[in-house]
Design the sequence.
């Protein structure tokens, strides 16, 4: 699709920005990480006290009538983590009320996103949970509610390494 802002073609269909782990986990020294972290590609636990879940933050691309999903991590409390873990393979998990969460990654191109208030929505046994931003005055909340243009999606995609 030709970008309405810069006139270039941006191949955003197959690449989306994604974070491998929560920022706090990535910053740990390897020996400390091995000692203090239980982790896989969907869940992380730090010191048996902090609980993280991998999810997607959908941003509507207005011109394409589709979503651009940023793969992020959120932190939840122990009760929410246990419940999500319990429902992980349950097909109708989307019927569960959302969980209070905070963003656990700093998303480039935006003011501070670490610790922003959000809700985690389970979506199904074969799909990642979705994040709904709650921080009213943050640009990311505006991008999620109003949508982004193809150029902005390309800016996020250009960060993919």
Sequence:
């Amino acid at each position: 699709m030709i970008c309405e802002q810069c006139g270039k073609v941006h191949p955003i269909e197959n690449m989306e920005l994604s974070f491998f782990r929560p920022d706090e986990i990535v910053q740990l020294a390897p020996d400390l990480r091995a000692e203090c972290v239980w982790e896989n590609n969907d869940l992380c636990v730090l010191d048996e006290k902090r609980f993280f879940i991998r999810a997607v933050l959908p941003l509507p691309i207005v011109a394409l009538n589709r979503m651009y999903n940023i793969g992020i991590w959120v932190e939840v409390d122990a009760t929410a983590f246990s419940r999500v873990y319990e429902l992980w393979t349950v097909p109708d998990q989307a019927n569960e009320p959302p969980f209070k969460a905070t963003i656990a990654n700093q998303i480039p191109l935006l003011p501070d996103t670490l610790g922003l208030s959000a809700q985690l929505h389970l979506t199904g046994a074969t799909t990642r949970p979705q994040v709904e931003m709650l921080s009213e005055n943050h640009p990311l909340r505006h991008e999620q509610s109003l949508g982004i243009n193809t150029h902005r999606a390309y800016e996020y995609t250009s960060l993919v390494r």
About this structure: The helical segments are 23-26, 30-36, 78-87, 139-146, 150-157. The CA atoms of residues 8 and 59 lie 21 Å apart. The first strand starts at residue 37 and ends at 39. Strands lie at 37-39, 43-46, 50-61, 66-76, 99-103, 117-121, 130-133.
